[in-house]
Specification:
homotetramer; 351 residues; alpha+beta; Chorismate synthase, AroC fold; five-stranded antiparallel beta sheet; 7 helices; 18 strands; 26% helix
């Protein structure tokens, strides 16, 4: 039932799968009078698209945005924006070899269980391509957030077992990993290339920081800012964990160590990661997510076919050996979608 | 705006704060004809209530459940259940000393930022007492889930720096920590008592397993089973992180290691923790949460008052030195609320 | 599923039935800092309660409001308000005679069809008593709307076949019918008394006017102001029709007659009833509803019992021979709930 | 905020305006495995499209449906269906003459009030063209409802002051008015042609019957079947009133006359129109709506421009002199959308 909408006021609804005619999104609740053009959206889509570098999939996708409604003479009208990205023609024969096989780590098995439909062409709705609709919607959210002084930045801090040693946000867009440490990035790339040659893949950790966020955002007791951000990023196929502020590290601390105390200048630390009681403090929002190693690998794996017979599968095709660089803009988009909705909800509460 | 409801079909709405007349919940969308009595609910509330042992707060709360509607001759009618727990009279003078101070790690500051209201009596809506409404609703969900063969069990696996060495679910309700290892539990208790004497507190990790869950549950692309579970548990005040299956450990693995392959008997491993693509596989759902050390400690801490003046605060009163034992039934309740809703949503999709 | 909530931002969830422990409502999304006390709510409840006059049911109900949460030192906190009205002990033997019979015009048959539960004590959730929760919530909405300059007034314009000849709002609260014409009211009362003596009942028409409403409210294309108001009042058990502005009379007019033209002073007419394209114009909102004759009558009627056997039924007990006077505050409450939500939604859109 | 979605489980979200690139709809929550092809949808769109006869607007619109997602090998997959109708190129100069004028009866004024945007090209989002997205979604709903035995039929019963004398459903699609009486239809056409020549327009009444609907549908207390149907049809721009069963006629009846009594064969009458207490009885659902005379007329009218100056306006262009024939499929579509959602909600409740 109806899991393809996100947000309460700035609300998006998405459609589309990898093998169909296209993917798209309707954004309802857009502030009227905001200047927007297709280039604002295209910029973010280009950060997500395949083929950016030799460590992303060389697969070609048409990621050109089409704005079908909701903008008049360069400004949002306040009515729903309809955005579409048309798919290029898919060569369905690519998938014939695995037509009846469940790819390990893929949603083939669970989609069949849920819907009773075996849609073997690409990953259908479970394809990463679905996230381009999120990125498009997030780009619109970011335009409005920017006017409020909010800046959202995500980046790789670990991949293929290699961690960033420092956090230099200026280098993120200058290395293929979108990592915050150029030297670590170089090592990650090297390691990932080696894994790709083996027909294998790597995971990593993405960190996201939002600065300039007003205090007072978040809707207790169920729709707290951290609860909503967690949901937002956990709804991405490759994400297996999320932590805020010090995250799991807090469990070994004493209360006297973990509590963020205050002085006349404000909070002295930000162990909490920008929220207390599910409401923003005005400090930076900081969280990290675990990105699993890409499921699609060309190494032979054990599996079964739809009739339960054991089989060996090799997922040929061109897959990202590590999804980290391309998930960065998606994480930013999901963060933007949560924040814009929370700003609007706070305005509604107080009015 | 309206953050006090949870669930789409089996939908709960809660109210109440620690200092008011009571806390409660309306459950809408309850399957009609389910046998239920107050004892089913009271049993779970007793697992959450204060004063269970010498390592929980000795504070007295009346946790007696009152069913105001929705049950007729011992069975649910399908109309909303109204459940209330009345508060005992609070001695408001208890809080006079900290009337104008922001307690570190507490939501005092953020609630004032959000609502513009300084409600100093207890933690108001941010009080842990709010979770008793969730436990009551969860108990009703569990009754229905039980008929579907679902069993949910949460337990402490780490606290105060001490980890369980084995996972023996039979001992959980037989130690004060609700840990899955009796020996580790004894050490945890000892360590926590020592911290309490220092006026300090400890954090920990809770693991939760749901068995017997049907495959096919979860609503892509935004309301995936893991996204909804993450939101559910991240909406608890003390929780700072959540991970599914191998969680953060997956980031250092190769795809060939992490993918759960299948043979004719089904999945050979469950690294994913019971879901792929946000839909249940039929394997056990497994996740872990990070519980921060209790914010309320009697050790002196630096803070400011509402006018920004620096002050020293000592949060007197009787607080849990470690929230782990009492959060266990709350985690189970939130899990039950997600699962029952997903069962009903799947039925709606297919009908 | 979950039909007991109303509103998106200022959101109410209700529970309770006539035979249970009580009825109540949670109001989520209340503007913080609004002065409110129980008397504000009680005033409206008293306008709805039974036993107001000799042409309403003499049944005794305890309509005393209890505020369980959401108010601190006389002001709303912005957290959910929990409001309860406890039922008086019901003498269930009252209903034994009709235990197995379907009362004509009553929801006995349809509730059994829907829920599979035969709850013969009173009308359960379908009882008019359920509307007291709406009135309580509406009273809170009205407090906030009053600060925005909105005034909502409903009144009987026709009952028992007798129409008001003039529309004098000053007399509404001074006659038992809450009609806008004292002389017509006197005739209505007389006619209704005669019907009551025959064991029969009467219907009528209620008109509602909201003045001082800002232009720009309503959320096309599905949640237009008229669509939401229609839903609000059609959700009352006795209402069978609703019309806005000239309503059904417009069908015989030409466009040139029906269109409200403008001059430099604004709209010259208000045939539309205060909205165009589902958005308020700033003119008075005007609508009318058809109230069916009370279903509960003591005259013998043909019916069947739960096993399908034909029976004669006499609904003894003390029922309103005409529901018009008591539905007036309920219509006002529903109108207030729609308007407050729309004000908040407009604020959210523009922010 | 976000008024462009409809339905809870079978949920549609629409976008698009008359002057943009197109209009469309995402349908989320579609039952998987339903056979569907574009022709099923196109059939209904053709019933709504302009230029059907000499008494509808001769305006040309491209109403060709494009299915972008959610269907695989001729069957629904259970994932969102994305449907788009591209607009033909609009000649914007058509609207230059009225660029700054408020058209009487149109939403120009209220859209400007709400959004602060003056979008003069066509009626933008308030255009009747928006309803083609509803018709497309409704066609999908009807496919599923048909398998449940539900049949929905709407038709004109009055237009331009002329009423149908008999109710012959077999003639509806054989006259230009979609009326249920061929002779009355002929008179209506004649009258409407005369009005059109004067540059004026006519209103009418549409009746809708749904047969084969299961008993037990509808979600008290706010989302009753009649409340949801009322909202559905009142969300159409031209509709000013709705009544169920006997509707406004019930107000002059006694309870003993209006109550539908039962015998061993079931209900003896259907005065209620197919629902009691907001839940379907299993009898035919019957309701009627008032359709206002078309606002766009070429007769000169008084109005003001955006700066408040008084002006004379003539809405040139090609408008429907009576919207009745073309609103029929829209009313059926909205009815289908309510019913499919209620079927699914009932399944969710009971599961």
């Amino acid at each position: 039932m109806s899991g393809s909408s996100f947000g309460k006021i700035f609300k998006i609804s998405t459609f589309g799968e990898s093998h169909g005619k296209g993917v798209g999104v309707i954004i309802d609740g857009v502030t009227p009078g905001i200047e927007i053009d297709a280039a604002d959206i295209q910029f973010q889509l280009n950060r997500r698209k395949p083929g950016q570098s030799d460590i992303t999939t060389p697969r070609k996708e048409s990621d050109q945005i089409h704005i079908l409604s909701g903008v008049f003479e360069g400004k949002t009208t306040g009515t729903p924006m309809g955005l579409v990205l048309y798919n290029k023609d898919q060569i369905s024969s690519d998938y014939n070899a695995i037509k009846d096989l469940f790819r390990p780590g893929h949603a083939d098995f669970t989609y069949l269980q849920k819907y009773g439909i075996r849609d073997h062409k690409g990953s259908g709705r479970a394809s990463g391509r679905e996230t381009s609709a999120r990125v498009a919607a997030g780009a619109v959210a970011m335009k409005i957030l920017k006017e409020k002084g909010v800046q959202i930045t995500a980046y790789t801090i670990k991949a293929a077992g290699i961690s960033c040693e420092n956090r230099d946000l200026s280098v993120i867009e200058h290395n293929k990993m979108r990592a915050c440490d150029s030297q670590a990035a170089a090592k990650m790339e090297q390691k990932i290339r080696a894994l790709a040659e083996e027909g294998d893949s790597a995971g990593g950790i993405i960190e996201c920081i939002a600065t300039g966020v007003a205090p007072g955002l978040g809707e207790p007791v169920f729709e707290k800012i951290d609860a909503e951000l967690a949901r937002a990023v956990m709804s991405l196929g490759a994400v297996k964990a999320v932590e805020f502020g010090l995250g799991f590290a807090c469990v070994d601390m004493k209360g006297s160590e973990h509590n963020d105390s205050m002085d006349s200048q404000g909070f002295k630390t930000n162990n909490a990661g920008g929220m207390i009681g599910g409401i923003t403090t005005g400090e930076d929002i900081i969280f990290r997510i675990a990105v699993k190693p890409t499921s699609s690998i060309s190494k032979p794996q054990n599996t079964v076919d739809v009739s339960g017979e054991e089989q060996i599968i090799r997922t040929e095709g061109r897959h990202d050996p590590c999804i980290c660089p391309r998930i960065v803009p998606v994480v930013e988009a999901m963060t933007a979608l949560v924040l814009i909705d929370m700003y609007k909800r706070e305005a509604a509460l107080l009015s």
